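To make this tangible, this section ends with a sequence with its structure tokens:
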Amino acid sequence: MFERLKQKWKVNALQLALILCTFAIGGSLTGFAGKKIMNLLSVELDWLWAIIYILLVTIIWPIMVLMVSIPFGQFRFFSNYTRKLGQKIGVIKSDAGSRKSEVRNRKPEVGN
């Protein structure tokens, strides 16, 4: 399993360990911060609390993981990872479409 992740992400064993630690610490801090914020909001209805918590954690997670990645030296990996994730869920526009149209519309240059 770890070998597949190393190949997929094109990282060595140390980087993989740092990435996995960043995921673990960032996720734990996200849950902790989410609970603290929810306590400040004091929402009484269980179903409303669950919806707000899920939305809050979804917003906090990328920020928290990027913050944790800095001391672990994995900021570049996680900035790329969160950008790709945002593109997949449709929050961030993909650059691929605009790049393809630029290539198609580019006129060939005439040699010197």
Observations:
- Residues 2-88 form one domain.
